[in-house]
Write a structure and sequence with these properties.
Rossmann fold, alpha/beta, three-stranded parallel sheet, 10 helices, 14% strand, six-stranded parallel sheet, 289 residues
Length: 289
């Protein structure tokens, strides 16, 4: 296999974002005496979720931020979870709130998400945050972290979506729908594809930008990729495999994100970046960065 695509290095870019966040955090602390803080809410003891929460905590600390962990029993009710989130919402020392998902089956996840106030929704999971992105209202909300991280990757690699045709495969409220809105705001022509899309391969072959977010390993075939297209793979499946059949796709694309090391690291970096922004706004700190 001879890979011709340029790799979009999310790991390196995420480190750059985290370093910038550390500088911004230090400035906020110097100006206010307050340390920006992210609260992570973990319900139950799912090993994968616990690992993600620990990882986010380490990234917070690396940026000089405070990490607040709220670990709750797996058997609690929706009402009890909402009460815990509201306590964090009312705490002026907490600037961002993240509910680790998925939550146990007995909990209404959407109700729990909606308990997070918009100014602390640094994970971009509420209806209000999605509305702000859809209406392209800067400063009114925060983007879902994975799509926002993908947009940062495009900017870093000088990919201007204006006038390009973008195909998004997947319509989840966390990735597919928000990245479509972000690309639309960047003046791309956007098509959202899903399980009922007819002739999916032919639709994807039109794309200048392909976003894969379906959660199925190697789903997007190499010969679906238009020569010279940019491929963003948001999938992360068992065995460190993305949603795109990487080798054949890399032979046709001009740029592609690897799995791991592409979109994934940018998700956490974006979470940290947006928490710093939330802290600055809540504390009234003007930022020039």
């Amino acid at each position: 296999m001879s890979e011709t695509a340029r790799l979009m290095d999310g790991k390196a870019l995420s480190q750059k974002v985290l370093e910038q966040s550390a500088v911004r955090t230090a400035r906020i602390k110097e100006a206010t005496g307050v340390t920006p803080a992210l609260a992570t809410v973990l319900v139950g003891d799912d090993p994968a979720s616990a690992t993600y929460v620990k990882m986010k905590g380490r990234r917070c600390e690396a940026a000089g931020m405070r990490s607040v962990r709220c670990e709750l029993d797996a058997n609690l009710t929706t009402e009890q979870l909402v009460q815990e989130i509201r306590k964090l919402a009312d705490d002026p020392a907490v600037h961002g709130i993240l509910l680790q998902h998925p939550v146990p089956d007995q909990i209404d996840e959407r109700a729990a998400f909606e308990a997070i106030p918009g100014h602390k929704d640094v994970d971009g999971v509420t209806i209000a945050s999605f509305g702000a992105i859809a209406f392209d209202l800067p400063g009114s909300g925060y983007g879902s972290c994975t799509p926002a991280g993908m947009m940062t990757l495009l900017r870093e690699y000088d990919v201007d979506p204006k006038g390009l045709e973008a195909i998004v495969i997947g319509r989840s409220p966390i990735v597919g729908k928000p990245i479509a809105m972000m690309l639309l705001a960047a003046h791309a022509t956007v098509t959202i594809c899903h399980s009922r899309t007819r002739d999916l391969a032919d639709v994807v072959r039109r794309a200048d930008i392909v976003v894969a977010a379906v959660g199925r390993p190697n789903f997007v075939q190499g010969d679906w990729i238009k020569p010279g297209a940019v491929v963003l793979d948001a999938g992360y499946n068992e065995g460190n495999v993305g949603d795109v059949d990487f080798g054949p796709a890399a032979e046709r694309a001009s740029m592609i994100t690897p799995v791991p090391g592409g979109v994934g690291p940018m998700t956490i970096a974006t979470l940290i970046d947006q928490t710093v922004t939330a802290a600055a706004r809540q504390l009234g700190v003007e930022e020039s960065m």
